[in-house]
Design brief:
- Helix 2 packs antiparallel against helix 3.
- This protein is globular.
- The protein has 260 residues and is mostly helical.
- The chain is built from eleven helices and no strands.
- The protein has two domains: 130 residues, no CATH class; 125 residues, no CATH class.
Length: 260
């Protein structure tokens, strides 16, 4: 069997099994928000599979698996701390979905998350299977952009968490640091991560297929579970304060405040 098929299939089997176990745990604790934690850590699982099974150039494989593992550990640890600190209190967006969905539909949702892990890992597979011993300027550019985007995403998450941890900020809108220039800097850097991965993958055979990643993530951010659901929840919880924030602050790309 071609490694372009075998490695993704092995990855899918493992992350699908993990998500079955996570779904059973979520049923027990009545908190479907834990899916986010394991969605992030599943990329570490896939990076390990790629490291063990892919037979591309060692240096390139080290670079892509290292960056994938770094991002997965960073995001997974952040979500573990955020969601794990209030396991008994389900996040607002999942509470809303709980009123609309049953447990069976959540099972499908968890499995779709596992499938999304594998689909989004397509560039990782392409890069790690590239046998060329020469790492191009395009690949180094993508890798540097990827690393910087991980840092940007980490800073925005840290700033938001620091704001929330201060009891004096309860009920207020975070306009601290990057959040003063974008309503969703975390989503901005998340999308930039996948744009960077796409750039990295372009130098590998079939790398153009990786365009599915930034397109899919962009669709989710702008149309599904990202900005729309987050802003709806923010308006429900903060009302006019958040509406004023919407009027003054860029929705996505960090930029200066509107003056009127």
């Amino acid at each position: 069997m071609s490694p372009y098929i075998f490695i993704p299939l092995v990855s899918w089997a493992l992350v699908a099994l993990i998500m079955i176990l996570v779904w059973l745990w979520a049923l027990r604790i009545k908190n479907n928000g834990v899916v986010d934690i394991f969605w992030a850590f599943n990329f570490l699982v896939i990076a390990v599979v790629i490291w063990l099974l892919a037979e591309g150039d060692h240096g390139r494989k080290l670079l892509v698996c290292g960056l994938a593992a770094l991002w997965s550990l960073r995001l997974g640890t952040y979500l573990l701390i955020r969601v794990g600190s209030h396991l008994k209190e389900e996040e607002g967006r999942y509470k809303q979905l709980r009123t609309e969905w049953g447990n069976a539909r959540f099972f499908v949702f968890f499995q779709m998350q596992a499938l999304s892990n594998v689909v989004l890992a397509i560039p990782f597979f392409m890069i790690a299977l590239n046998p060329s011993e020469h790492i191009s300027v395009l690949e180094y550019t993508g890798a540097v952009m990827w690393f910087l985007s991980i840092i940007g995403e980490g800073i925005s998450d840290w700033q938001l968490q620091r704001f929330k941890n201060d009891p004096a900020n309860k009920g207020k809108v975070c306009e601290y640091g990057l959040w003063n220039y974008s309503r969703h800097p975390n989503y901005f850097f998340q999308l930039m991560i996948w744009v960077s991965v796409f750039i990295f993958a372009l130098a590998s055979p079939y790398g153009w297929i990786s365009a599915i990643c930034p397109i899919s993530i962009g669709y989710l951010i702008f149309k599904v579970t990202g900005i729309p659901m987050t802003e709806e929840q923010s308006i429900r919880s903060k009302g006019d304060l958040y509406r004023a924030y919407q009027k003054s602050t860029s929705v996505f790309v960090p930029w200066f405040k509107k003056t009127n």
